[in-house]
Amino acid sequence: MSSLMDNIGCWNFRGLNDPHKQSEVLSLLMHNKLGICGLLETKVKQKNIGKILLDMLPDWALASNISYSSKGRVDFYGCQTCFKLRSLLWVRNLFILMLRMI
Question: Model pTM greater than 0.85?
Fold first, then answer.
């Protein structure tokens, strides 16, 4: 049986502003018991990202390139009881993310 720390996923998910799509993400996370998930092409504006995270995954942390891309191209979500996330560097299309298991 796998725990949240065993499973990492990534999804090219076009648009996370729609509550129906947020439900799809939640379903994916729970069904696959993901502890970390990268979402590409989220298209979430900076002013909305905190509300979406609180509504969708209140106990999770976020590392995003929103400060480098106003259209919110890449988000990494991680279960805060399993991981500590910290984005270290964005260079063009390269993202370096530090994960620390708790």
Answer: no
